[in-house]
Design brief:
alpha+beta, 5-stranded mixed sheet, 20% strand, 504 residues, 34% helix, 23 strands
Length: 504
């Protein structure tokens, strides 16, 4: 039994080994088959990849070749789309888009002034620069250009004749209404606000500079308002509204200065502008105002045109300061003080300026009827031609008295020579005793009309002869000697203050 058992065990062992060999053989065969199949699949993939790569390369290089000579897609120059355009086509597009059809200047009121580029020889050539841009393009990146935009800007500036453009601008009318600040104005019913005005007249220098600067940048639509070419008001109606009631309550008056032939009005509104913070009056503003009146209306120590009887028009100087006292001379300090009094009272008045008054009582206030815009001699005056020893008295433009029988100061003696100049009849006296300044002589006369502070005047003096050339060697001490009857006639005709013009 044990032998049978051993034989059976041996047989089972043989069968197990055989099974293992068979299994191994089957497994090997399967592995070999799998390897063969994988090798075949790889061969197919490689073949397909090579074919695909070849196709892609053909497409890429074909697209590259097709893009040459043109700008890539999505390319912009100066904002102009030049995709797939050659250099000439791109240059034409850019020049057409960027060159102006006209130069347009927009005014404050919305009006437009339009100029043709040909009027100032305008040209714009970017061909060369666009060629440079083309040469910088990487055509190898043509495929990427479909997904990415490229932008370029030319640096070329337009060419034009600046002088012609400047002349066009300066010869053009640019409005007529100036800018004005809001004002407080006096009317029949008190003060009211005159609103500000935004003028339509620009500063022509700023306008020219601005348009030229914009043209240099290639900008040919220009807004003058944006360019700061207009002056804006500095005072607005809203700024004055709070002052209007105060002005009507406290400054509703007018101070009128009367100059005979003209008047000047100083309104409360003007004075209101002189007020500082806290309601204190700025005195310097009042002084400047009085100075302006004096400079405009004073005539003392000025040269004057004078129409002589026989010698045409001459220019008369005032004469020596101490003697030529004729004319109007404002006492500026006293006039300012009086003005401040008028302002303090706040009442409407019509007054004269305060005129310089000497300690002797003489006031530099001319002859009322003589004052006009043309001069201060008028048509009533005494004219003395010292060279001709002739005198005329004009009243309202007509000769009322004349004589060639006078003797003036001794011309050969500078101390006694009658000084020429513009004077006036300073005083009138009868039975007057004349005295030399140095006490060397005294003389009495029936009629005396003084014309200078030095004592020169018209008076009677008994002489053996008058007129002619007597004054050259035997003249007076400076006065105008006349016959008794003639000086009496003149004395009775002439008013104090009458202008006296004496010349050689």
């Amino acid at each position: 039994m044990e032998d049978i058992k051993e034989k059976n065990q041996a047989a089972d062992s043989i069968d197990s080994e055989t099974a293992s060999l068979i299994s191994a053989a089957i497994a090997g065969k399967k592995e070999a088959a799998a390897k063969a199949k994988s090798k075949h699949k790889k061969k197919i993939i490689i073949t397909a990849s090579v074919a695909a790569a070849a196709a892609l390369a053909a497409i890429y290089f074909g697209g590259w070749a097709a893009s040459m000579g043109k700008f890539l897609p999505n390319t912009y120059i100066n904002g102009v789309d030049v995709s797939k355009k050659n250099i000439s086509e791109a240059a034409a597009l850019v020049q057409a888009e960027c060159a102006p059809v006209s130069v347009t200047v927009i005014e404050r009121n919305g009006d437009e002034k339009v100029f043709s580029p040909s009027d100032f020889d305008y040209s714009y050539d970017v061909f060369g620069e666009i060629g440079e841009i083309y040469r910088s393009v990487n055509h190898g990146g043509w495929l990427l250009s479909y997904f990415k935009e490229s932008y370029y800007e030319t640096q070329s500036k337009p060419s034009y004749d600046e002088n012609k453009l400047k002349r066009l601008l300066t010869r053009t009318s640019w409005g007529s209404v100036p800018t004005e600040d809001a004002k407080l104005v006096h009317g029949e019913n008190g003060y009211y606000i005159k609103e500000e005005v935004y003028g339509d007249k620009p500063d022509e220098k700023k306008l020219t500079e601005y348009v030229l600067s914009e043209a240099a940048k290639g900008n040919f639509t220009v807004d003058l308002e944006e360019g700061g070419c207009y002056e804006d008001p500095k005072v607005f109606a809203a700024d004055l509204e709070g002052n209007l009631d105060d002005l009507n309550n406290k400054f509703n008056y007018v101070i009128t200065y009367d100059f005979g032939y003209a008047t000047e009005e100083l309104t409360g509104a003007m004075v209101y502008e002189w007020m500082e913070d806290g309601g204190v009056l700025d005195r310097s503003r009042a002084e400047k105002y009085v100075d302006s009146l004096a400079e405009k209306y004073d005539t003392f120590m000025t040269a004057r045109k004078f129409q002589t009887t026989n010698r045409g028009t001459i220019t008369m100087s005032q004469g020596r300061y101490s003697t030529g006292q004729y004319g109007w001379w404002t006492d500026r300090e006293k006039t300012v003080e009086k003005l401040l009094e008028y302002i303090d009272k706040g009442e409407s008045v019509t007054v004269e300026p305060e005129y310089v008054t000497l300690d002797t009582g003489y006031k530099y206030r001319g002859f009322d009827s003589a004052r006009s815009a043309e001069g201060d001699i008028g048509n009533t005056y005494i004219e003395v031609d010292l060279s001709a020893q002739h005198m005329w008295y004009y009243e309202n433009g007509e000769v009322k008295f004349e004589t060639g029988q006078i003797v003036s100061g001794k011309a050969s003696d500078p101390k006694r020579k009658t000084p020429e100049g513009v004077y006036s009849v300073y005083t009138k006296s009868k039975n007057y005793t004349m005295k030399a300044a140095d006490g060397s002589y005294t003389a009495k006369c029936a009629y005396f009309m003084r014309v200078s502070f030095e004592g020169i005047g018209f008076h009677d003096l008994s002489r053996s002869a008058y007129g002619g050339n007597i004054y050259l060697t035997n003249g007076s001490h400076g006065c105008i000697n006349m016959k008794y009857d003639e000086v009496k006639t003149l004395y009775e005709m002439v008013e104090r203050g009458t202008p006296v013009i004496m010349y050689y």
